[in-house]
TrEMBL record, chains A, B:
Dyp-type peroxidase C-terminal domain location: 240-424
Keywords: Heme, Iron, Lyase, Metal-binding, Oxidoreductase, Peroxidase, Signal
Enzymatic reactions: heme b + 2 H(+) = protoporphyrin IX + Fe(2+)
Source species: Streptomyces alkaliterrae
Domain Dyp-type peroxidase N-terminal: 84-229
Presence of keyword Metal-binding: yes
Protein name from the UniProt record: Deferrochelatase
Role: Involved in the recovery of exogenous heme iron. Extracts iron from heme while preserving the protoporphyrin ring intact.
Biological process (GO), any one: iron import into cell
Record EC number: 1.11.1.-
KW Lyase (keyword) present: yes
Top-level taxon: Bacteria
Annotated gene: efeB
Length: 438, 438
């Protein structure tokens, strides 16, 4: 999950980059918010860049601790740009995935107006500015943007509902069925998709609430899932984050500085054979709700768990040796000639070397929705994977996993969706405009 | 929610108190963890106290940002002590509330053994140390303690199941029925209660998972709820946190430095008329799942919302004037003689001045479990209130609210529970030992 974290410095909390970023983030907040901040914390609260020790925070008279905005709350991403946010940024601590279906009677015109409203609201929310009017809830009023990102996508059914079937990307063809799927159709697919990520739970909820209210009568919620990742600052280890099986998960993710990162993750300028021009700079999101059979998993010994994954649990290093980022040695054997990374180990089966180079950017959340009627935890991974074409990313990898992954015994794919996520909107424009007005 | 935050400095993230705390927290971590830290981050990552600018973090060679442990992860509370943790500490960003029922055949002996196991595991988890053996999941392995607290309580039914009915506190009598209750018995009450709070979602989940696994065949999950609060550092405003209605909520909470705080919240040494000696230094937790009818609420104008609450939405100041912490002026009227804080405003009806001094320490979480079949958000407040005797805290306040609170229209009490939370365990002891072995 946090391989990206290692490399995309844009999204680092400003406290770790000091004056330049902190100042920029603070100044970019709305005047209303800024004045509120000065009034509440005194100028000292904003003076982070000026003095090396400013983070030894000041206490106001009533002994309320004042954490400078140049902290978690100040993290800020831009909504407008060539690409949508929420793809390459480090994964935030809170995530909501929500699918909506257009209401009966709503078509292209209503969808266009909705995407315009959604885009306008997302831009304000991501800037930490209140959304005026019907949608102003106040929930996030005191918080900074907290690295909020909002991302919009279209499911295959959207194109039928809006009379745009002829503009549906070939790359949006339905995912094949996999033998291990136990999919719940009510929690799968959907006309419209919204991904909301933020480092604060109230900021994330507020964004979801605002966007849901902006749908008016045009769209209705189909499904919604909530997940989490590690809170910024909860660890100081330079290591990919763990999932709810305790594994270091995401080591092999492509990195934005890799030469072929863009090619793997984003539709090129002008589109390509499988994606029309309106998808340029866009991507495809595969969303899978993958429940982990944690009771069964936890009954395995450490050695059994490590042979299922092909990596050490403690630090994610391959069983063939080295540290977390050492490439797998797929041939290496022990003294008895046994493969160190077993033939059906998850790391081997999912490796690009064994998938014809298939690559996707995984950006998941853990989820935990209590327990099921049988007492088993309803918990696992909200798998979100990004690629320029699912046929060159998720599909070939999952086909291989479906056939021979030792991990399959311990997981269940319970929901699935695929969305076309267009490029970003320029100032004054909205996401999907080239499709809906093109 | 964060009135306590203002005053309990013990739990401030060490980055805000610098060398002393940061060093202490780091040194208190296990050797295994500490060595891992040094190896990963280099000595620079631990040198927070030494140089004023140390928080401008160092980057390791692979450009992985190294956030010093003296950050969110380093927050650490002690499990052992006169009182249990999780009552007076500032509310953490993540919370799990879970009730368990003893399995058929399990009695006092099994309960005693379970509380001993639970206490031992909680102490290690709160110290950021791995729990060895059957319960070691690895999920939290790279994280600091992240201000984890674990709190245990007993429901009224526990005493019957364990043959201890004669030692049940009088103060644990069932809560009265309120006219606005729409309680779901499956999500109410329970023999045993666990409250888990942490600033990191994986740390909180891990603790829940470990404690649930430690139950073995002695107890089974009855209900479980998950909530959240603002992430540390998401705001820099010295203001009580907001709830999902956007209100500043918790302004009037008692503060630990108040003269009568202990008397209101904790059972005195030796017990009292309504609490036996084994409850000394303990407290009673009232837990209510209060759904907010957010669609209806959000249709109200700002003025209507403010008159329901009796406070300004923007900053929580009473409608009678002043700032958030100005006492309500219950008599003040406008030019037309209309009460500024309406007669049925929530702030008026719940004020100690109008409840015969009834006081409780509210320490809630917001919750959000997607949406209900009718499309309404399944969201609201996991209300947790602490008091030395519910008859002098929650009950009289709720009786008054039940009769005349303007907020009642916008909320539903969907689940309810009351737990006796004994005093803390000394080193080598366990929570509930004076009851179970007394």
């Amino acid at each position: 999950m946090s391989d990206e974290k290692a490399t995309t410095t844009e999204a680092e909390p400003p406290r770790e980059r000091n004056e330049e970023t902190a100042g920029g983030a603070t100044l970019s907040l709305s005047r209303r918010r800024l004045l509120g901040t000065v009034g509440a914390a005194g100028a000292g609260g904003l003076a982070l860049g000026g003095s090396g020790g400013a983070l030894a925070h000041s206490l106001s008279q009533d002994r309320t601790p004042v954490t400078p905005l140049a902290s978690v709350g100040a993290g800020r991403h831009s909504f407008h740009g060539t690409r949508q946010p929420g793809i390459v940024e480090p994964g935030q601590a809170h995530g909501h995935l929500a699918a909506f279906d257009l209401a009966p009677g709503a078509g292209r015109r209503e969808a266009s107006a909705l995407l315009r409203r959604w885009s306008a609201a997302a831009a304000r929310l991501m800037a930490g500015e209140p959304v005026e009017g019907v949608a102003d809830t106040g929930i996030a009023d005191d918080a900074g943007p907290s690295s909020l990102t909002v991302t919009f996508g279209f499911g295959a059914s959207f194109f039928d509902r809006t009379g745009l079937a002829d503009r549906r990307p070939a790359a949006l063809e339905p995912l094949p069925e996999f033998s291990a799927d136990e999919l719940d159709s009510r929690r799968s697919n959907g006309d419209l998709w919204v991904q909301i990520c933020a480092d604060d739970g109230l900021v994330a909820f507020n964004a979801l609430r605002v966007l849901q209210r902006e749908t008016g009568r045009v769209a209705r919620p189909r499904w919604q899932m909530t997940g989490f990742n590690r809170t910024p600052g909860a660890t100081d280890r330079p290591r990919t984050a763990r999932n709810l099986m305790g594994q270091v998960d995401g080591t092999n993710n492509p990195r934005p500085e890799d030469d072929d990162f863009d090619r793997h993750v984003f539709v090129p300028r002008g589109g390509d054979r499988r994606s029309p021009e309106w998808m340029e700079h866009g991507s495809y999101a595969v969303v899978r709700r993958i429940r982990m059979l944690l009771d069964e998993w936890d009954e395995q010994s450490l050695e059994q768990q490590e042979r299922v994954i092909g990596r050490r649990k403690s630090d994610g290093a391959p069983l063939s040796g080295g540290d977390e980022h050492t490439p797998l040695d797929l041939e290496k054997t022990d003294a008895r000639g046994r493969l160190l990374v077993p033939f059906n180990a998850h790391a081997r089966v999912s490796a690009p070397e064994t998938s014809g180079g298939a690559t996707m950017l995984r950006r998941p959340f853990s989820y935990h929705d209590g327990f099921l009627p049988d007492g088993a935890p309803d918990a696992g991974l909200l798998f979100v994977a990004w690629q320029a074409d699912p046929q060159k990313g998720f599909v070939p990898v999952q086909r291989k996993l479906d056939r021979g992954d030792a991990l399959s015994r311990f997981i269940r794919h319970e929901a699935s969706a695929l969305f076309a996520v267009p490029g970003g909107a320029p100032e004054g424009g909205y996401v999907g405009q080239p499709l809906l007005e093109g």
